[in-house]
Structures are given as structure tokens and as C-alpha cells.
Specification:
This protein has four helices and five strands, in the order ααααβββββ. Helices cover about 35% and strands about 35% of the residues. The chain starts with a helix and ends in a 6-residue tail after the last strand. The chain is α+β, with helices and mostly antiparallel strands.
Length: about 150
């Protein structure tokens, strides 16, 4: 075998292995959705938030993509210094559908008052998000466990 043939054979073997090792898993992509989504909420970036929500969103509260967008506009107008904390994240993926269970706390300022608006220090709110893989992105299609009605 010539040196070119050996080099080509090594490349053919190494490229798929390298791609497999560095390609993000579904779980890491879903974690990124929540990290970027919470950062967008903290920055009051409505477009950044809505890029994480599917146009097909529908939940037990009757909310859709457009209702969420309008609700977030009102929320951002009323609140400031928003901080989101989430922990105990458990992700379960089955083909193109995933669920993400987590404990959530949200702290914000309304006027001069700052406090928890979702959960509190000893008792976070347990929320379940359902995500669907749309093309190559995971997007939220449903939320369960929020303690209030819209």
C-alpha cells in the first residue's frame, strides 16, 4: 500500500469517529435550550425566548405560541432584575419527543419589591417541559406544573 492509500484509509476511519465524539448529544442540546432560554428571559429578550418555543406549542392552560409571546411582553414590562434558577434536571428522550423535569425558582423585582415569583428557597416548583425535535433543533411544545393560570 502506498502512503497516500494509508493516509486516506486513516482519514476515512478517523473522520466518523471524530464527528461521533464531538457531535452534541440530544441531552446536551436540550440543556442548551434551557440555558439559552433562561438567559434570554433574564435579558428580557423576547425573540431569544421565542426561538426556544415551537409554533405548535399548546399546553394544559390553553396557551399557544402567540399567547406566550404576548404574555412574555407583559411580563417583561412589569418585571425587572429577573433571575432564573433551575436544578435537578432530568431529561428523557424517545426518538423525536423529550421531556425535561426540573425544579425552578424565579426571582424578580416589581416596582421596589424583590422576591420569588415562582417557587421559593425551600420549595422550588417542579415543572415538566415537553420538547419535540423539529428538523435539527429541540423546541418546547408543552409545559406542565406551573402553579398559576394565565
Amino acid at each position: 500500500m502506498s502512503k497516500k492509500s494509508i493516509a486516506l484509509l486513516v482519514l476515512i476511519i478517523l473522520i466518523p469517529i471524530t464527528i461521533y465524539l464531538i457531535w452534541p448529544t440530544g441531552e446536551s442540546r436540550i440543556k442548551k435550550v434551557f440555558k439559552e432560554g433562561s438567559q434570554a428571559i433574564e435579558k428580557k429578550d423576547i425573540d431569544g425566548v421565542m426561538t426556544k418555543v415551537s409554533f405548535n406549542y399548546r399546553d394544559e392552560y390553553g396557551l399557544t405560541y402567540l399567547y406566550i409571546k404576548e404574555y412574555m411582553k407583559r411580563f417583561f414590562h412589569q418585571m425587572s432584575d429577573i433571575k432564573i434558577e433551575y436544578e435537578n434536571v432530568k431529561i428523557n428522550i424517545k426518538e423525536r419527543i423529550a421531556t425535561a423535569d426540573m425544579d425552578v425558582r424565579v426571582i424578580a423585582t416589581i416596582g421596589n419589591d424583590t422576591g420569588y415569583i415562582l417557587g421559593d428557597l425551600p420549595r422550588p416548583v417542579h415543572v415538566t417541559f415537553t420538547l419535540e425535535k423539529e428538523k435539527v433543533r429541540w423546541l418546547v411544545v408543552k409545559t406542565e406544573g406551573l402553579p398559576f393560570k394565565y
